[in-house]
Amino acid sequence: MRLCPGCGRTLAGTGWGCSHCGGHPPQRDGFVALAPQLAENAGGFDPALFAELAALEARNFWFRARNRLILWALRRHAPRLEHFLEVGCGTGYVLQGIAAAFPRARLVASEAETEGLRFAAQRVPAAEFLQMDARRIPFEQEFDAVGAFDVIEHITEDETVLAQMQRALRPGGLLLLTVPQHPFLWSEYDRRARHVRRYTRGELRGKLERAGFHVARMTSFVSLLLPLMMRSRMGHAGKDPDYDPLSELRIGGLANAALERVLDVERLLIRAGVSLPAGGSLLAVAQRPA
User: Is this prediction's pTM over 0.90?
Assistant: First the structure.
């Protein structure tokens, strides 16, 4: 069910107008704005980078490999996906892959800023897009799966977000998360990406369990490339005013293809049941109890 972002009461119909408190969310850049005050100063990602990010994603090895891993996990754990929410959809690159893999699924996606939603709506015009505060998700037992892909590390109140996603899921519903791993990799990249933290495996598991989830699967990825990543990040451990946060994504064709093949090998290991112990990122598959 949908909840009024103002008073929290259940909404009738499919719109966002509330007959209880009379609230009616405004439009911002053509999207329903459920948290318009947050859109002015979301702080999660630099909106100036969305345009270049949208151009880089489809050809960059990391985004392509992560998409394949996410789609495998959804097919494996939610093969009959019908109703999906992506929290923090960015420019819609992941959502576009999900739409192609599950053409009959109803897709809802959100962002704190509307800049990314403009690109996402072009990629997946059939989806419903909302400007939303992830700490106040206005749904209860609405979705059979929720995803947040490299999102909650941007939010100080990450446990609040996890609890909100748990509430938005139907009993037995699936949560799929990716987050950056290993605090020792913290660098200028994380500062420029506006991260709040990098996770340990135990930290993420504990936060998921406190939010009421059962962790069905957790594995590292970007594991075979961890030595290269350590070398790159440790070289930028201190503050650098000239650092370009998208520089790691601008890789030549041959190197990009080679790195993508390495991550394809990782995905085969994960599909075979191997839980990789260390890597640049973590994948978590968790379930709301039935």
Answer: yes
